[in-house]
Design brief:
Number of strands: 8
CATH superfamily of the largest domain: Flavodoxin domain
Order of helices and strands: EHEEEEHEEHHEH
CATH architecture of the largest domain: 3-Layer(aba) Sandwich
Helix content: 25-40%
Shape: globular
Bound molecules: flavin mononucleotide
Mean pLDDT: 97
Low-confidence stretches: none
Radius of gyration: 16 Å
Distance between the termini: 13 Å
Number of domains: 2
CATH topology of the largest domain: Rossmann fold
CATH class of the largest domain: Alpha Beta
Length: 156
């Protein structure tokens, strides 16, 4: 059987994982849940720096696809993540949200740091909304990004 496993801090990755699982008819588990270790896994994890959180807890032999959820949408960053995480299966990227109410002090400091980075780069159609999200919260959540992943599992 194939299942969906996710790790989520503020809920966007969980929402993508659950929505995807409902659409394709797979069971969906948090990485902290008990699940059958024989099942094949589509893993959804949020991006922190160049790492996909808790991907290290997944048995690589069972992994059939990886989905990262981040704020940035940058092919160079995703190539680096793929390399660092040694991802050898299909790899998809979705954009989540910044929920400042659900994060602690240090992430809030990081968000200010990122906002300054975007401002220094110059605010445009890409960096402007991320700048606002870092300072005030904001969402880039878009379920249409699930379509290629649904296509992938249906074509297997
Ligand atoms: C500590 C921390 C570090 C983050 N680092 C990055 C990052 O390097 N690049 C990025 O695009 N998003 C980064 N984010 C944004 C998260 O990936 C984004 O908010 C994601 O939607 C969180 O998923 P969740 O709602 O499932 O927790 C970071 C968020 C936090 C809290």
């Amino acid at each position: 059987m194939t299942i969906v496993v996710y790790s989520s801090h503020t809920g966007s990755t969980q929402k993508y994982a659950q929505t995807f699982a409902d659409k394709v008819g797979y069971a969906c588990y948090s990485v902290k849940d008990e699940y059958d270790r024989n099942d094949e896994i589509i893993y959804f994890g949020w991006l922190r720096g160049p790492s996909i959180v808790d991907l290290n807890l997944i048995d690589r032999k069972k992994l059939i696809a990886v989905v990262s959820v981040s704020i940035e949408k940058d092919d160079a960053l995703f190539r680096k993540v793929k390399e660092i995480e040694k991802i050898g299966v299909p790899f998809y990227n979705l954009r989540g949200w910044i929920d400042r109410k659900k994060v602690g002090f240090f992430p809030k400091i990081l968000f200010i740091f990122l906002a300054v980075k975007y401002k220094l780069k110059g605010l445009d159609d890409y960096t402007g909304p991320m700048y606002d999200a870092m300072l005030n919260g904001g969402s880039f959540y878009d379920e249409s990004g699930l379509d290629p992943i649904i296509e992938f599992v249906r074509s297997r």
